[in-house]
Amino acid sequence: MSGTRVVWMVSQREFKTRMLTKANIISLVVMVVVIAIGAAVGSYFLDRDTEEPVRHVALAREVAELRPALEAAATAGALDLEITTMTADDATATLDGDDTTLDAFLDGESAAPRMLVATEPDTAVLAVVSQAVRDHATAEQIGDLGGDPTSFAAAIAQAVPHLEAVHEPEDSTFDDAAFGVSMAMISILFGALVGSGSMIAMGVVEEKTSRVVEILLSTIRPSQLLAGKVLGIGAYGLFQVLVLGGSLAVAALTLGVDALEIDVSIGSALVWLVVWFLVGYAIFAVLFGGFAALVSRQEDIGSVTTPLLFVLFVPFYTTMFLVPHDPDGTAVRVLSQIPVFAPFMMPVRGAFGALEPWEMPLSLAIAALTLPGLVWLAARVYQRGVLHTGSRMKLREALRS
Amino acid sequence: MRALHDLTFEVRSGEIFGFVGSNGAGKTTAMRIMLGVLAADSGTVRWNGAELDLDSRRRFGYMPEERGLYPKMKVGEQLRFLAGLHGMSPADAADAVERWTDRLGVGDRRNDNVESLSLGNQQRVQLAAALVHDPAVLVLDEPFSGLDPVAVDIMSDVLRERADAGVPVIFSSHQLDLVERLCDRVGIIRAGRMQALGTIDELRTTDRLQWLLEVEADPGAVLTAVHAVPGVQAHALDERPGAVLVELAAAGPGAGAAGAEQDVLRAALAVGAVRSFGPVRPTLADLFREIVSGDEAPDAVHSPDGSSGSRRTTAEAAA
């Protein structure tokens, strides 16, 4: 029987086991729900911030001549104003009722109309109405004095200062959208890497604790077992990344990315997320598997995974604090070529548009060159450790023997 | 620490080989070396004359001493997975899993997680895991421990049936009556060395024929009377007061001794009424106790062909 088939069967079992584990299903659903709630809450606040509600003002027939002035004032004040005509009785009834669609009703004399409101006047509406009445009165007076109200209005409209600055405003304003998208990306990446790494470590130790490893290794090679495990759990990790990344993308689109004028392409961000997950996973997964083989009990797992988690935490937080403020600084450029930093730094720098064309391929090549060494190291530790029982095996012991 | 010394034995096709020894004697170590789970510092394991590799080991059925199955995996799914790793096609694996779980009495638990089964049933599943891929060689480390009498009978039948089909079967056990009943050949191991190796009959044959004599008289008087017969030694048994164990010098197999026991009987009748007088052969348990309690001295192997092992761990199976 070919080794490929064995690896395939092992990986299939791993993938199926993770997919059908209740805890995994629940946590994935919870995270998708959290993203959905986040999107809903976000869109509520964004809508509230950006869109002013439409104001309704009703006019009695005797003040209908105020309409052009009201429209002009509303446009100048950037207020969405709807003007209707109504009788005083209807307006009173409407304002008295629970229906809050009407903000104000005007009647009486155009020069000094009565403004009827439910309780308190809407300040924006009051300002527009005051402006309109004043403009109307001024135009009347200009007309009475023999002037042309239209040319007066045009002259007034042009009487604004022309703005000039001595210093040009700084070009590189902080890019909120790029920051949000890239932080969401590396958070998913970090979560998926920590999750899959721990899953591999737990899987390895589970096989050792339950001693099923002895049956397995009387039939297949340790390297086949480790490879199958890494591939199966990797496939599950990729599935997680796609589900979470996809729901984030959907959330971003429903939030109205276009309205926010985000110039980050969600599609390409998702592609890079997947690419860097695969690279990061390849770097860390085998290490988690190999090191976990040093211990025989679930309680001891922490002693081998903690150093690896630390190696994940450092690049994650360094990226979070360093890159957004200085995406093309020297330190960032150098660090982002180091394989453990690259999966976090590269997508963020990409989102900020701070990458030279050669930087991404170079970091991928460096990672690809480092991988065989890491795989060799991890496979060696795994083979030595996997049948060792009892207390924790020393790393040096595993490497030497 | 050296676990095994010059341990050499051979199991033939169609033979059930019982591996016996006290705790820590090296049975499990030897079996793990056979399956390649443990690497031997020196020595070889051969099957049909060729040294074992992963491909030939795939045709072995193995039950490790420390039972091992995925606790959170369904019985049927797990056995199909293991059968697949041994090279079975999915359809064959499904058939075999059904057949063996039914036979071992866990057919109705196929869709339950292993961890939800009782220990005895987990043991049956473990046996199914060793048998499901129709192995050409069976190596079972204490397959009977933890089984109820019904399961012991089923398991005995299975082992006999596999052996009759030409499969060499090696198993270790502390249930010596079972080993005695089931095994064609037995190896008794102590401190990593094979101390006795052969068929049960061969092992039970002793240099001196032993007879148990019970006489209604003072044991001291009986001893004196029996000692008077030439070439006879006798001593009282602590565990059976009133009985005397008589040892006759075996002058060649059978012939010369035929007269001696009649002389002993006559001498005993002179002292009192003889209640019983019959030959005794040591049980496997007796042999085991003798070997295990013996001191370091007997370095020579009791093997019938007299060949002592080389400085290697060599196990051989033929099919």
Q: Could you please describe the fold and organization of this structure?
A:
The complex is a heterodimer of chains A (about 400) and B (about 325). With about 400 residues, chain A is mostly helical. Chain A has two domains: about 5-40 and about 175-400, no CATH class; about 55-150, Periplasmic binding protein-like II (D-Maltodextrin-Binding Protein, domain 2), CATH 3.40.190.10. In chain A, about 65% of the residues lie in helices and about 5% in strands. Chain A has helices spanning about 5-20, 20-50, 65-75, 90-95, 125-145, 150-160, 175-210, 210-215, 220-255, 265-290, 300-320, 330-335, 340-350, 360-385, 395-400, and strands spanning about 55-60, 80-85, 105-110, 115. Chain A has a four-stranded mixed sheet with strand order 2-1-3-4, with helices on both faces. The model of chain A has no long low-confidence stretch (mean pLDDT about 85). With about 325 residues, chain B is an alpha/beta fold. Chain B folds into two domains: about 10-205 and about 290-315, Rossmann fold (3-Layer(aba) Sandwich); about 205-280, 2-Layer Sandwich (Alpha-Beta Plaits), CATH 3.30.70. Chain B is about 35% helix and about 25% strand. Chain B is built from eleven helices and 14 strands. A six-stranded mixed sheet of chain B has the order 5-6-7-2-8-9, with helices on both faces. In chain B, strands 1-14-3-4 form a four-stranded mixed sheet, covered by helices on one side. In chain B, strand 8 and strand 9 (about 195-200) form a beta hairpin. In chain B, helix 3 (about 75-85) packs across helix 4 (about 90-105) and helix 9 (about 220-225) runs antiparallel to helix 10 (about 255-270). The longest helix of chain B has 16 residues, at about 150-165. Residues about 250-255 and about 295-315 of chain B have low confidence and may be disordered. The chains are: A mainly alpha (about 400), B alpha/beta (about 325). At the A-B interface, helix 1 and helix 8 of A face helix 3 of B. Chain A: It is found in: Membrane. Chain A: GO terms for molecular function: ABC-type transporter activity. Chain A: InterPro entries: ABC2_TM. Chain A: Pfam families: ABC2_membrane_3 (PF12698). Chain A: Keywords: Membrane, Transmembrane, Transmembrane helix.
